[in-house]
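Quick question: what would this complex look like in 3D?
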Amino acid sequence: MTTTRIAVRAGDPRAHVDLVVGSLAPRLVSRTSNSAHVAVSAAGMLLLGGDVVHVEVDVGPDSTLELEDVGGTVAYPATGAASRWTLDARVGSGGTLLWRALPLVVAEGARVERRTELGLDTGARAVIRETIVLGRQGESGGTLTSQVSIADADGPVLFETLEVDGSAPEPGVLGPARVLDAVVAVGFRPGAEPGAMQLDQPGAVARHLGDQTHESRLDDVWARWSTGARSLGGVVAPAPASGGSPPREVEARSIE
Amino acid sequence: MQPAPQTITLLLADARLPSGGHAQSSGVEPALLAGMPVADVPAFLRARARTTGLVDAGTAVVARHSALDCLPVAPIERAWAARTPSRAIRDASEDLGRGLLRLAGRFWPDVRSSLAGLDHSPPRPLVLGAIAAHAGMDAESLVRLTVYDDLACAVAALLKLEPGDPADGVAMVLEACSSIEPHVAAVSTITATHQIPAASAPYAEAWAEAHAVTTRRLFRA
């Protein structure tokens, strides 16, 4: 297992960005003095039985990191061990993490254990999109355990474990739905959206449950909530490109 | 003379207990209003027991432990709320907690002090845990009580919403209660908030939120 690492720290004149290629390959798209936009794609064939993907995200104080998936992920049938996907993210005081993940498709026969751990320092916030699809077209889907654990400096904000088996749907859990699409906002109270759940601590969860990802209306919710978070984070507008050298694409090293 | 802990367990599981349980359907009315077929109710109750049921049971066990050790209850309430993202479900649990606390405060005044330090009504599992501590109830009985009480509420409501053979309802309760037996020993020994189960039920949560804003309902949740 090689850890993929994505870190940003506000700096002058440009934010310091640290990208380490692991199972995923992060690539810098743009940055300002206090923000970075990073695209993430798979560095190789993912996600096979026994694969262990570990992603570490570190957003510095008063910095903003915008992460975007380039392609979705398919978890393929596993004959032996389950595949594991772990995200450890930390957002420093006053920082902002925006992660727009593309769907994770759990093919029939696949076994996936996913863990997302997000720690927010004082005044930090995050908006995360996550989409789970049980089965490729015409399949009922494999088994997935997806644990989400989000905490701020004072304690847990959202802690939930989704346990599903595509071959044994449970009414009230995912029932007949193949798709669970969600936008999770934490660290602030985002604008009201019909049907969105207001968490006890500052934060909200909007979900779409259905048969097809394209039926989801969460693109709009994502846009509104991430705009809200971005404005709280005070992202500096990108400087004009003239004169400056474009960010270099690098592997397994820092961009100063 | 103190009543036996077993008597207290029976009392708390009794649907006739004046604590407000008759106003709740444990997610059954929200599910049926959202279009879940009645035939799915037995499987819905098993899923409810595995998800919300064990979250509440684990919370109650930690609350009992904290009351016995005189530890603050606020971190337990926060752990429970983080595992209960639907405000409609949190509100329903707080209604039940308020009713139970009103009753329990009369017989076990220490229950109130065990639950001090919260800025709103304690949810049902916290009150059940504190009662268990002060009435001498063991943790395994508390786990079974927490799950049973919720399911018994569900089936009592089902008979009002979709009248059928009451014996079928009893069978559903017993079946769903039995389905969590493999977890009872493990859940009854937890002592820290991070060990509380967190299994989620996204559809049930969405149904609860929709139900909270409809005018076509008999039950609070």
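Answer marked as accepted. Chain B has one domain: 22-194.
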